[in-house]
Amino acid sequence: MPWIKEEKLYPILVLLLIFIMAVRMPMDSDMWWHLRAGQETIRSGHVYRVDTFSSTRAGEDWINHSWLSQVIMALILRIASFPGLSIWVAICAVLSMGMVYIQMKGPALLRCAVLILAAVVASVVWSPRPQIMSLVLLALLSWLVHQYRNTKRWPYLAVSSSLFVLWANFHGGYVLGLIYLGAVIGGDLLERMLFREDPDGLEWKELGFIGAALILGFILVLINPFGIELWKIPFNTVGVETLQNLINEWASPDFHQAFQQPFLWMMLGLLGLLGLTGKAMRGYRLVPVVIFAWAALVARRNFGPFAIISAPALAEQLSYVWLDWKERARHRVPEFDRMVRSAEKNKVDFNVFARNILNASLIFLLLFAGIVKSIKVNDPGLVESTENDLFPVGAVKWITEQDVPVALFNDYNWGGYLIYHLQEEPVFVDGRTDLFGDEILDDYLAVIRVDEGWEMILKDYDLDTLLLRSDSNLSKAADLQGWKIVYSDDLAVILTKEH
Description:
about 65% helix
């Protein structure tokens, strides 16, 4: 018999393809301040929790909900440099998609097709940030709940609750897990309200165990360096109204952009299949899908969670359509029935040795491709070139050479980079939106948009240096209103106030 049967070979090949898709050059704008925070935690031996990176919130307490992920990132960087971060992201992507696959029903090829679509949807948010850990933990949680529903064994729920201890220290996305458990319970309650019988459904006692897991998980979130303060994170972040105007990933999807359309295909495909099958989706699947679809339509950063939760439901509905069509075709088209029987016979008779060689060759080919891509995307020359294209490398070098403290107003997307590379100079703003809130972010937007009174805002913050994009409206306006250009290149410009 073959070493690796087709039903196991297909997911192995697809997961290797996902690794190849996910291994990328680590150049996310927020990655830098996460790395710096992790380094500060390691250096001091205490969780970094009082802001020293910015001039606008210096000395204030910061709920650093991702501290453990930051430490892991900093250690990976120390041990394996940027290739290590790149591979870490790819491994997390493979783990999350692998746990999604084992929840699916239907033929292996069909499940693999759905998994590829889900991976393309989720790939929008695969980046070297703590958020990638939330995707892994959400996939693991959904698998544990899936196992509990199939086996009715409570230890799966015990592990589910314990996940929140890790989750609360890895990333503030722990709220996704709480929402998921609540949605599963809501789906089962909906079934009962509609008087729908489900022979494989949960008894009231079993549903109560999921409720207990939800409550216990909510409590276990408190096991973190910030205690009850961590409960504020989802509200602090979502409550920042400026987010959608400032950060693309918090904005609603723009389906005119091709890379965002797979989410639409997945959502509409699931809706269409529900109509084709005539089989209602069970409540425990329906309610989570609806909630996470809504979240993804509000902010595209939720594409990943939507893909993880929706893929098993999509595969289930697609398998109903496929099996029904196959059965009808075999009865109505004799040639098709003979073709299926012949294919099944040839599958058995096919030379086992040749199949093993072919299967092993495919696996090693994709492994080799993954290694080659890992090396290529982290080529030092390419990394340096990309860094120069995306970040103000020359401007940072110029400021460092001056060896004179500056009171800096910076482009938001460069804040994290400056925190990491210009450690002696505090930034005006960076990606820690929960720390800055609407007050600081609104001031930032008023200045960057050159709203009336923008200079007065800079004066109130006592800022005398602007580090901006060369093509920004602010850099042009400042140049005309008494600010002197002291450095410029194709990407960045530095202006100082003439006195």
